[in-house]
């Protein structure tokens, strides 16, 4: 790897506020509040600095980005700078007039999440009764002339419904569907034992995915995001640390990946104190795991080190407390037993069917302790 | 290539956006979850897919712009591929 990489994508997490309470949310457990959020002027500056740095795509996410009334202003600035914009939304809060004003501002595409194929799934997974809003949002997105991209997080509680989930997305007119097997960060890690599928469940789901993919052809693109705990090698997380993209959190802290806030041993700089170029090029956190020189063995001597970059730093930290270790997903990792143990449990226990019992055991994403009292 | 292909009118898909990247000095095609690095000819072809001209007119324009001849087959091959990838719609 030679020279300083330039990021293509900016994930603008404009808020942590969200009407949903998903049990696998990748936001940190300590959710930021409204008063912590960057104002409009700061976000406009971040967008301009990102464009200068090489960013060509801005993904507005959260939380639910629609809770910010200035989203149109931010989208318009992206349009002015020739940046492609994507709205990542739960669909709640997306009215016809909002969609229209966002499209007028220059929004290029939208990605709508669902939790399953019916109202019960949204209730169990997100503690929300507004599945109807998602169906409405799908229609609103299409009628606004935007391509409808959809995504669903897959896990132990909904994998058996995969066929029906794909049906719903097809019915609602999705062009593209991401089937994202749950990744265990943030809230998902808290709920891991209840979310982790068994091998048999996954094998069935892979069969469904392959059959439907062949049937759908060009009609709807479907993607299968691998369940990494079941893989022999780790995912090439983010294409390597601080290589292609960056995330700006609601309070202006900048991360090389959306879940890096979990690495509590590192200091991540804020756009309140530094410009984006300095943070990307010079800050200690961004340089820490860039390239391959930092790698310990077994990664350093591994022929795969330029393929998977040692896996995910956030996962290494979450499972071992050291972000510099090999991702424990890797079969060669000295910490691989941490992953294996979780899989053994997932394949011993029966899938709990009782919803009331499940609801009691699950930890729903909610602001717990005020950030100002920590 | 047949006559119907030449009279078709290609247009860049709504979800797609062409961009000259000033930072890297390259031509890009931007899609919801993808960034495609285009070569000069690909960028030139897609740049003319604005729904205002037929494939035949597009070929004539390109041959003029590039001071070249017999680009028809190359353009058709590229457009068929681009259509298959969902970058271009044809009416």
UniProtKB/TrEMBL annotation, chain A:
Keywords: 4Fe-4S, Iron, Iron-sulfur, Metal-binding, Oxidoreductase, PQQ biosynthesis, S-adenosyl-L-methionine. Its EC number is 1.21.98.4. SUPFAM superfamilies: Radical SAM enzymes (SSF102114). Interacts with PqqD. The interaction is necessary for activity of PqqE. Residues 4-219 form the Radical SAM core domain. It is an enzyme of class 1 (oxidoreductase). It comes from the Bacteria. It catalyses: [PQQ precursor protein] + S-adenosyl-L-methionine = E-Y cross-linked-[PQQ precursor protein] + 5'-deoxyadenosine + L-methionine + H(+). [4Fe-4S] cluster binds at residues 18, 22, 25. Binds 1 [4Fe-4S] cluster. The cluster is coordinated with 3 cysteines and an exchangeable S-adenosyl-L-methionine. Pathway: Cofactor biosynthesis; pyrroloquinoline quinone biosynthesis. Gene3D superfamilies: Aldolase class I. This is PqqA peptide cyclase. Pfam families: Radical_SAM, SPASM. Belongs to the radical SAM superfamily. PqqE family. Its cofactor is [4Fe-4S] cluster. InterPro entries: 4Fe4S-binding_SPASM_dom (IPR023885), Aldolase_TIM (IPR013785), PQQ_synth_PqqE_bac (IPR011843), PqqE-like (IPR017200), Radical_SAM_PqqE_MftC-like (IPR050377), rSAM (IPR007197), rSAM_sf (IPR058240). The keyword Lipoprotein does not apply. Signal peptide: none annotated. Catalyzes the cross-linking of a glutamate residue and a tyrosine residue in the PqqA protein as part of the biosynthesis of pyrroloquinoline quinone (PQQ). Coiled coil: none annotated.
UniProtKB/TrEMBL annotation, chain B:
Gene3D superfamilies: Coenzyme PQQ synthesis protein D (PqqD) (1.10.10.1150). This is Pyrroloquinoline quinone biosynthesis protein D. Pathway: Cofactor biosynthesis; pyrroloquinoline quinone biosynthesis. NCBIfam families: PQQ_PqqD. It comes from Amycolatopsis ultiminotia. Keywords: PQQ biosynthesis. The keyword Acyltransferase does not apply. Signal peptide: none annotated. Monomer. Interacts with PqqE. The keyword Secreted does not apply.
């Amino acid at each position: 790897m030679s020279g300083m990489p330039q990021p293509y994508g900016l994930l603008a997490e404009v808020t942590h506020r969200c009407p949903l309470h998903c049990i696998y949310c990748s936001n940190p457990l300590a959710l930021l509040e409204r008063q912590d959020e960057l104002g409009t002027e700061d976000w406009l500056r971040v967008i301009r600095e990102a464009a200068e740095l090489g960013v060509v795509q801005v993904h507005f996410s959260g939380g639910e980005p629609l809770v910010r009334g200035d989203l149109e202003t931010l989208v318009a600035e992206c349009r002015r700078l020739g940046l492609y914009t994507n709205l990542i939304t739960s669909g709640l809060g997306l009215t016809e007039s909002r969609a229209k004003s966002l499209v007028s501002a220059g929004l290029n595409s939208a990605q709508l999440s669902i939790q399953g194929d019916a109202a019960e799934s949204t209730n169990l997974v997100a503690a929300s009764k507004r599945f109807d809003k998602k169906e409405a949002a799908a229609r609103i997105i299409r009628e606004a002339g935007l391509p409808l991209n959809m995504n669903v997080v897959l896990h132990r509680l909904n994998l058996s419904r995969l066929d029906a989930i794909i049906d719903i997305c097809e019915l609602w007119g999705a062009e593209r569907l991401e089937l994202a097997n749950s990744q265990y960060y943030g809230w998902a890690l808290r709920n891991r034992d209840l979310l982790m599928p068994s091998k048999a469940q996954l094998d069935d789901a892979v069969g469904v995915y392959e059959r439907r993919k062949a049937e759908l052809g060009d009609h709807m693109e479907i993607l299968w995001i691998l369940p990494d705990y079941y893989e022999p090698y780790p995912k090439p997380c983010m294409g390597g640390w601080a290589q292609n993209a960056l995330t700006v959190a609601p309070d202006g802290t900048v991360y090389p990946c959306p879940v890096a806030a979990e690495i509590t041993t590192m200091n991540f700089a804020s756009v309140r104190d530094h410009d984006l170029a300095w943070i990307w090029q010079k800050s200690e956190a961004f340089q820490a795991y860039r390239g391959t020189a930092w790698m310990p063995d077994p990664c350093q001597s591994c022929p795969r080190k330029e393929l998977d970059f040692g896996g995910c730093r956030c996962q290494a930290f979450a499972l071992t407390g050291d972000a510099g270790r090999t991702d424990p997903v890797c079969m060669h990792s000295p910490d691989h037993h941490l992953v294996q143990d979780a899989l053994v449990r997932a394949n011993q226990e029966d899938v709990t069917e009782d919803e009331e019992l499940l609801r009691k055991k699950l930890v729903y994403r909610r602001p717990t302790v005020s950030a100002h009292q920590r | 290539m047949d006559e119907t292909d030449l009279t078709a009118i290609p247009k860049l898909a709504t979800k797609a956006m062409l961009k000259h990247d000033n930072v890297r000095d390259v031509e890009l095609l931007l899609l919801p979850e993808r960034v495609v690095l285009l070569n000069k000819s690909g960028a030139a072809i897609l740049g003319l897919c604005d729904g205002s001209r037929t494939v035949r007119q597009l070929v004539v324009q390109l041959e003029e712009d590039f001071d070249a001849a017999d680009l028809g087959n190359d353009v058709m091959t590229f457009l068929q591929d681009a259509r298959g990838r969902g970058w271009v719609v044809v009416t």
